[in-house]
Specification:
By secondary structure, the protein is an all-alpha fold. It has four helices and no strands.
Length: about 90
């Protein structure tokens, strides 16, 4: 292999490795690392996992939480399709 072919192969293996890291496939990451080493590529130190942003919490809404909003939406009278067309012009 030429030097350019080696660089292309290394770039492809690094992209492949990123996917395996993303999905937690440690055995495949190790296999790619072995091939990178065989090609003479020195592994880069692992990056720390991204942290969640400060001040943002994930909220899970349950069906029971949504019931008051559903009742409020049901209480509002629905417009007829012809009335909506008159307003929007469609």
């Amino acid at each position: 292999m030429s030097k350019a072919d080696d660089k292309n192969m290394i770039a492809a293996l690094l992209r492949e490795r990123e996917g395996y890291v993303q999905y937690g496939k440690k055995d495949r990451v190790a296999a790619v690392d072995a091939e990178l080493k065989r090609l003479g590529h020195e592994p880069e130190p692992e990056k720390a996992e991204p942290k969640e942003r400060a001040g943002r919490e994930s909220v899970q809404v349950t069906a029971d939480d949504a019931k008051p909003a559903l009742k409020a939406a049901e209480a509002v009278p629905a417009k007829k399709a012809t009335e909506a067309r008159k307003v929007t012009g469609k």
